[in-house]
């Protein structure tokens, strides 16, 4: 959604404060860590929905770092975004800070252990046009990677898998224009993590792009903030393996799918028509 920059920062930092309070509560209870399946230090480390997760200080620090990268994409100059992420301008390998329809603004930066693609959220009219195309479109066929070293043979894995049409168009733009850069950087820096981050519109595009990227860059992971509803139920399991999402309490955007809106409008229509009938 479109906010003033100071409102965006306040909203996002309120989420970090909430996470910190959750971590403190867990620490104060002195729970035995042996009852948890895994302690997670990096917010990009996915766990199945059935797994229990310890919110550690390392997890929160990494979430804050990814949030800083996601927020920096809203800057209008390379100098401004470098100041926000705390890296020299030489760390920014690519930056396109003006968006057009189905091609959000973004930058690629490299720090000491990460290759990060940050995709900007909704900030100008062209972004709204991308948001507005919320029909469901089938995800292109690809080789689906499952947990472990084995891979499913190439076949039509797009059947029954749908994503937000505007985000898919934007993700395909990144496949054409950005994927070759990420592949080359990951080849040159084989020990660096590959992270795709974003907020709002940028979060939705990050999720879809990561699903399309992981065949060529299996270590790619998405860390997203306030992601819109953008994938069908058939993609949830696969997305949970490569995406970590943060939702600020009752934020409506992650629940604002077209199906939900149409359903609610139908309910309101029935209520309204019922209220206008004579007794």
Structure notes:
It is a single chain. This protein is α/β, with parallel strands linked by helices and 279 residues long. It is built from nine helices and ten strands. The strands form three sheets. Strands 3-4-5-8-9-10 form a six-stranded mixed beta sheet, sandwiched between helices. Strands 1-2 form a two-stranded parallel ribbon. It has a two-stranded antiparallel ribbon with strand order 6-7. β8, α7 and β9 form a beta-alpha-beta unit. α1 packs antiparallel against α2, α2 runs antiparallel to α3 and α5 packs across α7. The protein is globular. It starts with a helix and ends with a helix. The C terminus is likely disordered.
Rg value = 20 Å
Helix content: 40-55%
Shape: globular
- Output the structural class: alpha/beta
Query: How much strand content do the residues show?
Result: 15-25%
Largest beta-sheet characterization: 6 strands, mixed
Low-confidence stretches: 23-38, 145-158, 275-279
- Run of helices and strands: HEEHHEEEHEEHHEHEHEH
Distance between the termini: 42 Å
Got a strand count? 10
Number of helices: 9
